[in-house]
Design brief:
The chain is globular and about 40 Å long. It has one domain (2-81). It contains two helices and four strands, in the order βββαβα. 4% of the residues are buried. With 99 residues, the chain is an alpha+beta fold. It has a four-stranded mixed beta sheet with strand order 1-2-3-4, with helices on one face. Strand 1 and strand 2 (11-20) form a beta hairpin.
């Protein structure tokens, strides 16, 4: 897994991690602030990520996020569609608490 810090003209706007699978790149993204400048920067970074995925022979990018509760965030589908993602679905996850 590779880790990235994403910046725009005003500073860091997101943190990302990428994992490589045989046919896909798995993208974990945490957006730290949101607004028009962030959307523009993220769109540019997504274009670079798509170029990277194509160079690696990947057929898709899978975007994931961890929701802090047990309910899905209703904003997630709209947010991901801004960047061309489709097929939004609920993903089940489990957590192992360390004491």
């Amino acid at each position: 897994m590779r880790f990235y810090t994403l910046f725009d003209d005003t500073g860091q706007y997101a943190a990302a991690a990428l994992a490589e699978h045989p046919d896909a790149l798995e993208l974990h993204l945490t957006v730290l602030r949101f607004g028009p400048a962030t959307v523009r920067a993220l769109r540019a970074d997504m274009e670079e990520l798509k170029r990277m995925a194509r160079r690696l022979g990947k057929t898709r990018i899978v975007g994931l996020r961890v929701e802090p509760g047990s309910e899905a965030d209703p904003r997630w589908p709209k947010f991901t569609r801004l960047f061309g993602f489709t097929g939004q679905r609920v993903l089940q996850a489990a957590e192992l608490r360390l004491l």
